[in-house]
Amino acid sequence: MNATSPEATAPGRIVLLTTSHRVAPGLLSWPAWQALRSADRVLCADGAHPQLPYLREAGIPVDEAAPTAEELIDACAGGRTAVVVATGEGEPALTDGLARLAGTGRVAMPELELLPASYDLPGARLLDLVQVMDRIRVECPWSSQQTHKGLAKYGIEEAYELVEAIEDGDRDELREELGDVLLQVVFHSRIAEEDPESPFSIDDVAGGIVTKLIHRHPHVFGDETATTPEEVKEHWLRTKAQEKRRESVTEGIPLGQPGLALAAKLASRVRTADLDVPLPTGEGIGYELLAMAVRAEAAGVDPEAALRVAARAYRDAVRVAEGVSS
After folding, report:
1. 161: buried, middle or exposed (CB in 10 Å: 19+, 13-18, 0-12)?
2. Where do the H-state alpha helices sit in 66-147?
3. Lesser CB count within 10 Å: N end or C end of the chain?
4. What is the DSSP string of 62-87?
């Protein structure tokens, strides 16, 4: 090959290889492995990059270097290919430098390719949340002192704020409130890891609910059949009863929930179990509200939600009477 051949003057190729820290190191796409194996040079500015041990184990030499844009272009001269394994922060200085040189129009630029080597799976950002919570638990003076009991009130508050966002129909608020509720789950799970007698982690929490969902959906994961919501609910209650081995349909109903919701839940359990239980009689508004809640549940109406709608209308009427703009 002489010095003026097309191969000698070809500008070459630069591949910027990006990976996700949420995917186990070494699990790279086939195009990524092909690019790495065929490259004339592989570079990485971070000597502690989690991918490097796996690349070297696969027989791919990696230079721990942070070349400038000019140096990288020179390394690609003669039609050579250089693969840059991007750090967690990306390579802003390098990409800015390449863009600057390309903009001058005076440099024979190599072919530039951005190659994602691994992609986040759905739910991958939950790993970030767990890592952030780990750090906060250790380094934050307030968070490091919290207990399950101390956080209980926030769980109640966040649940009500979530319900309010749903009723308002505000999508941005809904997303934020779901995050706040999720934080409570992750926070409690992180605290639970420190229990000296019966610790558990967020993985145990997630594993438990996965097992429960699979077991209570035999029409999805098993041989059962369900074609209506009523049949699904029947499956759910039957498997739940088998799991809990409860003596009464009232077991497991939290008595601390709002009164109308409590009455409706009791009525739902009684109706589903096909029990004939006459309502208790007595003097006072409580028994009247109980009867109304049972009647609402039988009609498919959530009495707690219905009362909130009416109460919000009442709130609006009060503001109008006060001359306060909504």
Report:
1. middle
2. 69-75, 92-104, 125-139
3. C
4. -EE----HHHHHHHTTTT-EEEEE--
Nearest to 236 by CA among 256, 212, 255: 212
Map residue 112 onto helix, strand or coil. strand
Whether pLDDT at 177 is above 60: yes
| CA atoms of 85 and 38, how far apart (whole Å) | 14
Q: Which amino acid is at 1?
A: M
Rg from Cα positions in the chain:
31
Q: Give the model's pLDDT for residue 134.
A: 96
- pLDDT digit string, tens, across residues 152-174: 999 989 999 999 999 889 999 99
DSSP string, 282-311: -SSHHHHHHHHHHHHHHTT--HHHHHHHHH
d(CA 130, CA 127): 5
**pLDDT grade for 278, boundaries at 50, 70 and 90:** very high
CB-hemisphere CA count at 13 Å for 72? Answer: 32
At residue 163, what are phi and psi to the nearest 5 degrees?
Answer: -60, -40
Contact call for residues 216 and 236 (beta carbons, < 8 A): yes
Three-state DSSP at 113 gives strand
| Closest CA relative to residue 311, chosen from 171, 170, 160 | 160
SS3 content of the chain, % helix, strand, coil (to 5): 55, 5, 35
Give the residue among 34, 28, 21 at the shortest CA–CA distance from 118: 28
- φ, ψ of residue 111 to 5 degrees: the values are -65, 130
